[in-house]
Amino acid sequence: MLSISDFKPVKLEDKELFDKHYDKYPQLHSDYLFTTIISWMDYANYHYTFLKDSLIIITRIENQLGFRPPIGKREKDVFQEVLQLAKKEQNKYPFGLIDLPTKEWLSENFPNLKCTPNRSYFEYVYNSYDLAILPGSRYGKIRNRLNKFKRNNSYEVESISEENINEIKKFLNRWCLWKDCESDPLLKNEKKAVIYSMSHFSELELSGIILRINGDVEAMAVYEKMNSDTAVIHYEKASPDYAEIYKAINVETARILQKEFKFINRESDLDIPGLRKAKISYHPHHMVEVFHIDRDSLLK
Predict the structure, then answer these.
(1) For the segment 32-79, what is each residue's pLDDT rounded down to a tens digit?
(2) Which of 3, 146, 243, 256 has the fewest Cβ atoms nearer than 10 Å?
(3) DSSP for 63-102?
């Protein structure tokens, strides 16, 4: 029988293990990717185990355990064991980050469970060509603002490499001073995650670009392959000193990715109004919907 003692903390050397499993079972949501897990360890304290070739991930956030659906060939008895552990927890939603195909499978096999949409973690997926070209009237305002930025600023695009990693870390420290990361728990943990990713950039097999203005790093984007047709942008940061610079880093990133990927996942908005408005303005092709199950439903 599955128990909490079977789970062990995720470590950097587990990347190959996760990669091999995800080759068999490609993921739709970026929160399952190894880069996300290992970079946010300080915040979410990810642990994992395997049961019948299914990868099972749990988190501990603010001393509350959260369980995720087993990743692998869906077997009812494996899900049953995870659900049994989840129902022992006192938090409101002990079982979550359920993608739509898994939600539909759960509805068929566990009809008493009620899956509730978790809108804050819906991810925005765009046609990469649209983000790179900004075609048609619906992107007119964005094109105009981008062109204004280009008229006012001359910038250079440069790939992230070992040679400029330290400059990027200094830029991120400046960015956190601008944003006052220390006063915001989410930004404080995001800073840790980004710095970790940059410190292990090659080991995590990440890619990215920076924008230089007058020789200085003023914007950066970090991305990787998510599945066969989708790339995910993990981080995108830019200086507040340049109006519309985010539009420039966005389009330059898309121009690179559209050569290889049909879609670009730009992750969720975390229910932040300004971020949601910005993501919607770029007209997502579709959303990666996720759901969670409340404890009362598990107890029925």
Answers:
(1) 999 999 999 999 999 999 999 999 999 999 989 999 999 999 999 999
(2) 3
(3) TEEEE---BSS--HHHHHHHHHHHTT--SS--EEEEEHHH
